[in-house]
Amino acid sequence: AQSVTQPDIHITVSEGASLELRCNYSYGATPYLFWYVQSPGQGLQLLLKYFSGDTLVQGIKGFEAEFKRSQSSFNLRKPSVHWSDAAEYFCAVGAGNNDMRFGAGTRLTVKP
Amino acid sequence: NAGVTQTPKFQVLKTGQSMTLQCAQDMNHEYMSWYRQDPGMGLRLIHYSVGAGITDQGEVPNGYNVSRSTTEDFPLRLLSAAPSQTSVYFCASSKGNTIYFGEGSWLTVV
Fold this sequence. Notes:
The complex is a heterodimer. Chain A is mainly β.
């Protein structure tokens, strides 16, 4: 069965510093991979997705993620974090609408 | 663009009460779903629908009913609320493999 692990429950970074959020997955076939962001009191917004092709995908708000099949990972990165990036981030994996599995989330705090 | 609209945003229920969370989407998506979000557990699928008149169970369906009479609407019913159903509920619609979420409904059962 597919599963998603986000090893870091909470990460704190300084504004302007780089960011990497980890995501590891278990899936029996080539997965579709997603990163969502959730601001407090809001729904989930899609940051980026990987279906196939180039393993480095660009998303909105300056985020990118790299699919590494050998490591079963899909880590999210941003070169310079802004205070407005403080939110909760969810990694998800699946191959169909009713086949999605979400990680438990990583909460990002940005220090001024 | 409205997207996925959920109501109410906040609700407090007493144990044993019933209620319906409303969900509507204006993107003409065939696929709609309901998730619940609990601390440390991410989102879990409750029920989903692949089109009007068709619904099926997800990972955590117990205690919830759904129906899909139109493409636009997908209400979630709690027939007899329990404290274990205290959660944040998200309705979603999908095109292809990309899910679009509503803003959530915070439900507390006391």
